């Protein structure tokens, strides 16, 4: 299952790395592609888990579709 995540508060590749690190620790995530302001996540992971992991890094999740 693919999820498109819109993220606010990211401004550089350092931010991208923080989100990548957060996603890499989540159980159920098979793969992901992170860009400034968004991420596409493949796998079986809940929206709540995605939101919590990203927001723990200091970024705001605007939407998950």
From TrEMBL:
Residues 1-62 form the HMA domain. GO terms for molecular function: metal ion binding. The keyword Metal-binding applies. Keywords: Metal-binding. The keyword Metal-binding applies. CDD domains: HMA (cd00371). Pfam families: HMA (PF00403). It comes from the Bacteria. This is HMA domain-containing protein. It comes from Clostridium folliculivorans.
């Amino acid at each position: 299952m693919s999820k498109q995540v819109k993220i606010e508060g990211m401004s550089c590749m350092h931010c991208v790395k923080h989100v990548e690190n957060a996603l890499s620790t989540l159980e159920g995530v098979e793969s992901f592609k992170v860009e400034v302001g968004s991420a596409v996540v493949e796998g079986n992971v809940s929206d709540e888990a995605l939101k919590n992991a990203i927001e723990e890094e200091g970024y705001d999740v605007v939407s998950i579709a």
